[in-house]
Amino acid sequence: MPDPIGLKVPAWKDWLLVVAERLARQVYWSSPQLRSWVKKRRRRVRPAAQVADRRQLKQFLKQVGVTEGALVMAHTSVSGLKLTEGPGQGQACSVPVSVAKQLVDDLLELVGETGTLVMPTHARYQSEDEYGLHADPQRLLKYDPEKTPCNVGLANELFWRRKGVQRSLHPYNMLAACGPLAAELLRDNLNELKPLPHGVHSGYYRFCQRGGLVVSIGVPLGPYLTLIHVAEEARDEDWSIKDFFEERRYVVRINGRDQTCVVRQHRLKYSMFCLCMRKVRRDLVGEGILHEAAVGSVRVDWANACEVFEYFMSRNRNSTYPYFWPWLIRERR
C-alpha cells in the first residue's frame, strides 16, 4: 500500500498535482472518443488478482472496528478477488458470485445481530447519466426500491436483495441497510422538502452523526468515498457553489404505487470536471483519517465517518473544497 509519509509533498508540488488532475478530467470528459477507448480497454484488461485467507481477512476487519454491534458501511469489489480457506481447506474461491456472497456473509457475521451493515446501491441509470455528460433534467427516471439493480458491485447487489435488508426510497445514491439501526438511518429520506441524497434527511448524514465505520474491500476507498458529499449537502443553501444543486423528477415505486417525486442533487458537471479525488485521498491519509492496508494482496481501507464529515466541514468553510476552480465550468449541453 502507498506510504503515507510519501504524501507529505511541498505545497507547490501538491498544487501541480491538482492542476494535472483538473486538466486530465477536462480532457477525459470533453472527449467521447477517449472515453470510448478507455471503456473498451478496461473490458479487455483483467484486473490484477487479489488473494487473501478468508479467516485472516475477517480477523483484520475485526481489528479495525468491524465488530459485534458496530455500524459499518462497506464498499466492495470482487473483480480478481480470491479467498482461501486456509491450509488443507481446498482451492481458493474465485467465482465472483461466491466471493461476493462470502463477503456479505462475513460482514454480517462480524457485526452480528446487534450491529448494522450498510452498503451503497446506486442505480444503473446514474452511470448512464454520467456518460451522457449532461443529464437531461426533464427526463423522467423510474426507481423501484425492490427491483432496480445497482451498479456499484456484485456484493452490494446481493446484499440489498437479501431478506430483511431495507433500501432507501431516495432515487439517487441509494443506501441499503440491515440491522437495528436500518429504519432510523433510512427514515424520511424522501419527502416534500426536495431532499438531497446526502443531506440532513439522508442515511449518509445519519451514518456520519453516529460515527459509523466505512471500509472498502478489494478496492481503494479514496475514489469511492461517497461520504465526501455529506458536508457540502449539509451546508445546502450555504454551500459556496451557488448553482451546485438542481431539481430532478423521478417516478418512485412506493407501497406498490408509482409516485412522481422531486428531489435535488448536485450537477454532474462539477464532479466530472472539478472534483480532485487524488488531492482528497492525499489529504485524508496525511491527516490520519483514511487508513490503507492489505491482507495478503487484498486492498482494505477504512475511515471513521464522523472524522471524515468534520474534516470536510472544516475544509469547505467559505471554500469550494474539494472542487477546484468551479467558476471555469461553462454550461454544457
What does this structure look like?
Strand 9 and strand 10 (257-266) form a beta hairpin. The termini are far apart. Helix 4 crosses helix 6 and helix 9 crosses helix 12 (305-315). It is built from twelve helices and twelve strands. The chain has a seven-stranded mixed sheet, with helices on both faces. It has a three-stranded mixed sheet with strand order 5-9-10. Strands 1-3 form a two-stranded parallel sheet. With 333 residues, it is α/β, with parallel strands linked by helices. It is globular. It has one domain (4-328).
Q: In DSSP terms, counting alpha (H) and pi (I) runs of 4 or more, how many helices? A: 12
Unreliable stretches covering 5 or more consecutive residues = 2-6
Name the beta content range: 15-25%
Distance between the termini: 40 Å
Order of helices and strands: HHEHEEHEHEHEEHHEHEEHHEEH
Roughly what percent helix?
25-40%
Overall geometric form: globular
Radius of gyration: 20 Å
Largest sheet: 7 strands, mixed
Number of domains: 1
- Please tally the β strands and state the result: 12
Mean pLDDT: 89
The quaternary structure here is single chain
Helix/strand/pairing category: alpha/beta
Placed side by side, the strands forming the largest sheet appear as 6-7-4-2-8-12-11
